[in-house]
Fold this sequence. Notes:
Blueprint: E1 4-15, E2 18-29, E3 33-37, H1 44-52, E4 59-64, E5 67-70, E6 83-87, H2 98-102, H3 111-124, H4 140-152, E7 158-162, H5 170-187, E8 191-195, H6 198-204, E9 207-212, E10 215-220, H7 222-227, H8 232-237, E11 242-244, E12 247-249, E13 252-255, E14 258-260, E15 269-273, E16 278-282, E17 288-295, E18 299-305, E19 311-317, E20 327-332, E21 339-342, H9 344-348
Parallel strand pairs: 3-8, 3-9, 6-7, 7-8
Antiparallel strand pairs: 1-2, 1-4, 4-5, 9-10, 11-15, 12-13, 13-14, 15-21, 16-20, 17-18, 17-20, 18-19
Helix pairs in contact: 3-4, 4-5
Amino acid sequence: MTGSALAIDHVTKAFGATVAVDDVEVTLADAELLALVGPSGCGKSTLLRLVAGLLAADRGTIRIGGTTVDDGTRVVDPERRHIGLVFQEHALFPHLTVAQNVAFGLRSLGRSERDGRCSHWLDLVGLGSYGRRYPHELSGGERQRVALARALAPAPRLMLLDEPFASLDPNLRAQIRGDVVELLRATGTPAVFVTHDQVEALATGDRVAVMRAGRIEQLGDPTEVFHRPRTRFVAGFMGDASFLPIARDGGGAMTELGPLDVPDGNGERVAVARPDDVTFEPADAGTAEIVGAEFRGPVRVYTLRLASGAIVHSARSHLVRAELGTRVDAALVAGHRLVAVVDEHTATGLDFDTCSDPD
């Protein structure tokens, strides 16, 4: 991943008084997969449409494969950007066969080459024998595979996928997602996935960009974004999280569950505790109480009220059974450390759970 497949340089897009994309800057390396995730209305789909050329930027520059396609004044048409687009709705032509759909972007080629490339991509997505079928004869997953083959057949510089698996049931969604990621990696095709699904973002992206109110709140590899969030918003959005107050203790810091290191920087900070960070043992004089339990198949997630009144969650094996009202001693799982994040909710008064900008 040494080249630059995509460069977004201080791009802004507003709809009237509403700023949907606010001074965004991000690059995508060759063969890299970037997951763009955030709540509905945070600007992620607007950013994707700017890259695709379906919208024009108000300010900033977008380059694809080193070529400027939008500089705020001159805009290259979508069909000249050499990109592939896959949407949630598949957007297949109902009156064309599967093979004709895949060949649609190959009309400039001779028939023999067009047919060969069409067959090649249908084979790669596992639909080699489906060429004569029509879209209405396919399942949702099969239609999504056809849409992917159609987008990849012209050998795009860049793939853009906007909620491509949202219409599929969970099991099929995971299967198709894995197949798509494997295919993109096998072909070395760089791609941007837009999703509101945190698990999907962590599973697909070499890097994950978390958006909020038109800006990228954090950009990093999946492990960093999940385990080392920078803000309360990122911590809460990317997974189950409880937040504990921090007490300064000389040069260090302490929470009810144990010590942690607080990085230098301004702003109020809180500690993030995820369910897999917390364990407990029954104790008659325990400092915590079990006040809730939720069965999730492999695990039960228990809700604990600490002595201070703070609430945390603990994920335990489904074999661990504890009754509501049980007194317990809560502690960190061995080897786990809590991370401190900027508490912008307290420091600025923002409601970190909502956004109001267009998606």
